[in-house]
Amino acid sequence: MGASLSNLTENGSANGRPGLGDIPESCVACVFMYLTPPEICNLARLNRAFRGAASSDAVWESKLPCNYHQLLDLLPQQNYEGLCKKDIFALLARSVPFDDGNKALWLDRISGRICMSISSKAMSITGMEDRRHWNWFPTEESRFHVVAYCQQVWWFELSGTVNFPFPPDIYTLTFRVHLGKIFKRLGRRACNFEHTHGWDLGPVRFELSTSDGQHAVSECFLDDIGQNDANGNIKRGSWIEYKVGEFIVSSSDPVTEVRFSMKQIDCTHSKGGLCVDSVSITPSDLKVHTGKGV
């Protein structure tokens, strides 16, 4: 049976029956339109016709977002000039930095849909100029290799804006934060909660709005030790994604402006000991992949 299956991949089997290699490349390409990029790459190993179809510009054009040319504009022209559509997909499926490296986008390697991450470096942070309250520290746990650390403040507020031609879709915006300060001890990950306080005394308010009038608000106590997140992660010592809300994009033109903020401005108590890494914008029904390469 194994030998028969192997024969099917060739141009005609030993007994004269047609094999997979006899299927016209154009027909294979039509089938590939309905498959995911990883499935296409796996089938390309079967025979020459499948390899040819798997390199077709028409196939990979269908996997790219409708405005992928605008995404390429974020890169130096020499990085993509002369590339076939398959290589363009691979290029955009890796992290593409922009805005001085403080923002990054990538295509989800399964669906080809756009995901974005915005570093805390791209946000306006109240009191950041005073190192008694805020500072930056490097970490390998961030896509941007640096996070903002709040040591102690009374007025806590971060805000940011992104203008981008998002393709039509429904997107979710989340903040990625971490209670405590991460460090290495004897080569192992550890957390210092010495300055972590105040987050159980009042909720943090998350907010987003868009240039076409959409608005979403959510509130959450960050330090509720008895309550885990939706994935069962313990909030202390883990990175947590806090969902702000969703927004809908119906067209890439005009460009969508998204404004977002995270604040706790109840000045009756101080708070501190919190890392803020980034904001993520991803299609709402997408199982998010790392975006660090395909």
UniProtKB/TrEMBL annotation:
Matching Pfam families: F-box-like (PF12937), PP2 (PF14299)
Domain of life where this protein originates: Eukaryota
InterPro entries: F-box-like_dom_sf, F-box_dom, PP2-like
TM helices/strands, residue ranges: none
Domain F-box: 17-63
CDD domains listed in its UniProt record: F-box_AtSKIP3-like (cd22162)
Full protein name: F-box protein pp2-a15
Species of the source: Nicotiana attenuata (Coyote tobacco)
